[in-house]
Amino acid sequence: MADARSTGVSATRKPESKSKAKKPSARALENAARREVIDTALAMSASGLSPGRSGNVSVRWQDGMLITPSGMAYDSLSPKDVVFVAEDGSVAAKSRKPSSEWRFHLAAYAERADRAAVVHTHSLHATVLACQHKPIPAFHYMVAAAGGTEIPCVPYASFGTEELANYVCEGLRRHDACLMANHGQIAIGNTLGSALELASEVENLAAQYVQVLSLGKPKLLNGAEMQDVLARFQNYGQKAQDD
Ligand SMILES: [Zn+2]
Predict the structure, then answer these.
(1) What is the number of domains present in the chain?
(2) Residue 45: other Cβ atoms inside 10 A
(3) 8 Cα: distance to centroid of ligand 1 (angstroms)
(4) Spatial CA neighbour of 91 closest among 106, 76, 77, 78
(5) What number is the average pLDDT over the span 20-40?
(6) Is the pTM of this model over 0.90?
């Protein structure tokens, strides 16, 4: 438990041998990936995207993933607390318990071989829409940031279940983000940074859409208009936006 802190007592450790100096060891790479999971969870928390202890973060690693543990405050985490879950769902006996939502994280990697990071949050406005079972339509061109002409909302299933994992797979099959009915949202990316950025964009769009709905029926972009944006995002990435 407290042995994470004892690693500070390493003043007597010998410097690494010269032959190993150039290439980081597998252990160092894994440690850096674990650190990045923690940093992303902290950034998610600091940005207000995950009220309370909601939300979890993972990154593809070897034949499985590294995911935030269950029931621990992010600011108390050290790299060894991050949990490796193999592709068959198994976890090493000595490791922490993975986030209760590990099934849909793992399912997302199986569904989307082209993506390597997952961010799940209960961000306020995305969750408000999800509780009304409302997908986010093409009311704004930035909806294309999730890779389609809408951000879908998948049906409700109890947290942590295989049923929920199956729904999330459906939602992510052709989109990089979806809402989860009566629950929250999930975003995926090539990196932890891009998954977090998309989760933040989904929340931003959800907040705008809630306001738009309060003014009456939204005026949506048509298919051709959205295809144009999708093509530009595909060619130039989201940098094509007018920022
Ligand atoms: Zn959740």
Answers:
(1) 1
(2) 20
(3) 34
(4) 106
(5) 90
(6) no
